[in-house]
C-alpha cells in the first residue's frame, strides 16, 4: 500500500452534555491509529491520580500568565478562578509528525481554535436524536438531581443553537453508527490534497509536472 506523508489535523468534537461526545471520542481513540487526545493546561491543582502531561499540564498562575503574554496558547479561558488553555507546541509537534489531535471542547473553545488555526481545524457537532432522548439520557445516568438535569437541558438548547458554526453534524441515535460516521469524516479529511505534504513528490516521481 502506497503511503504518502501528510500533515495532521485538529479534529474537534462538541455536543451538549448527554449527546454522546465522550463515548464517541473514547471509541475513536481506541479504534483509530494516528490520533491522540489534546492535553490542556490548567492552573488548578492536580486531583488524586492525575498525571502531569497526560491528564493536564499543571502550571502555576505566573507561568500560565507568561505563556499568555508569549502567545503560547491556541485558546485559553478562566473558569471558577482557574485558568485553562491549549498549548500550541504539543499540538504543532503532533501535526508536523502526521498525527491528528482530538479536541473535546464546547462551541466557545471551537470558535477560538478556528480563529487561531482555521486551516488545520475540522469541527463536528454531535446532536441527540431528540430533545426527549437527551433528557432521558441525562436522567438515566442517575448522577444528577432534577434541578441539575433541568439546568443541563437549558444549556443544551443554547449550545445546540451554534450547530451551524461546525463543518459536520452527526446525529447520535445509534452509537456504533455515529462512531462510523465520525471515522468516515476522519478518513475523508485525511485524504484532502492540501494535507498530503508528500503528494507533489509522489506525482512528480511519475513524471507528471507539478
What does this protein structure show overall?
- With 210 residues, this protein is of the alpha/beta class.
- The chain has a domain at 10-38 and 99-204: Rossmann fold (3-Layer(aba) Sandwich), CATH 3.40.50.
- The chain has eight helices and nine strands.
- It has helices at 21-31, 61-69, 88-96, 107-117, 131-140, 146-160, 175-190, 199-204; strands at 10-14, 35-37, 41-42, 57-58, 73-79, 82-87, 100-104, 121-127, 168-171.
- The strands form two sheets. It has a five-stranded parallel beta sheet, with helices on both faces.
- Strand 5 and strand 6 (82-87) form a beta hairpin.
- Helix 1 packs across helix 7.
- The protein is globular and about 65 Å long.
Question: Main sheet: which strands, in order across?
Answer: 2-7-1-8-9
Strand content: 15-25%
What composes the largest sheet?
Answer: 5 strands, parallel
- CATH topology descriptor of the domain at 10-38 and 99-204: Rossmann fold
Q: Assembly type of the shown chains?
A: single chain
What's the CATH architecture of the domain at 10-38 and 99-204?
3-Layer(aba) Sandwich
Measure the end-to-end span. 23 Å
Amino acid at each position: 500500500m502506497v503511503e504518502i506523508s501528510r500533515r495532521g489535523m485538529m479534529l474537534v468534537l462538541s455536543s451538549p452534555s448527554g449527546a454522546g461526545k465522550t463515548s464517541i471520542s473514547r471509541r475513536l481513540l481506541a479504534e483509530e491509529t494516528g490520533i491522540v487526545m489534546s492535553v490542556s493546561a490548567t492552573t488548578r491543582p492536580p486531583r488524586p491520580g492525575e498525571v502531569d502531561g497526560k491528564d493536564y499540564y499543571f502550571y502555576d498562575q505566573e507561568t500560565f500568565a507568561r505563556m499568555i503574554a508569549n502567545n503560547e496558547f491556541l485558546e485559553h479561558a478562566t473558569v471558577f478562578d482557574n485558568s485553562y488553555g491549549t498549548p500550541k507546541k504539543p499540538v504543532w509537534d503532533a501535526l508536523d509528525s502526521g498525527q491528528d489531535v482530538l479536541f473535546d471542547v464546547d462551541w466557545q473553545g471551537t470558535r477560538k481554535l478556528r480563529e487561531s488555526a482555521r486551516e488545520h481545524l475540522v469541527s463536528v457537532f454531535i446532536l441527540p436524536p431528540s430533545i426527549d432522548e437527551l433528557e432521558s439520557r441525562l436522567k438515566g445516568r442517575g448522577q444528577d438531581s432534577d434541578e441539575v438535569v433541568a439546568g443541563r437541558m437549558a444549556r443544551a438548547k443554547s449550545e445546540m443553537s451554534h450547530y451551524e458554526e461546525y463543518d459536520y453534524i452527526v446525529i447520535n441515535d445509534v452509537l456504533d453508527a455515529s462512531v462510523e460516521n465520525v471515522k468516515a469524516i476522519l478518513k475523508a479529511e485525511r485524504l484532502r490534497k492540501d494535507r498530503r505534504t508528500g503528494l507533489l513528490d509522489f506525482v512528480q516521481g511519475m513524471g507528471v509536472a507539478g
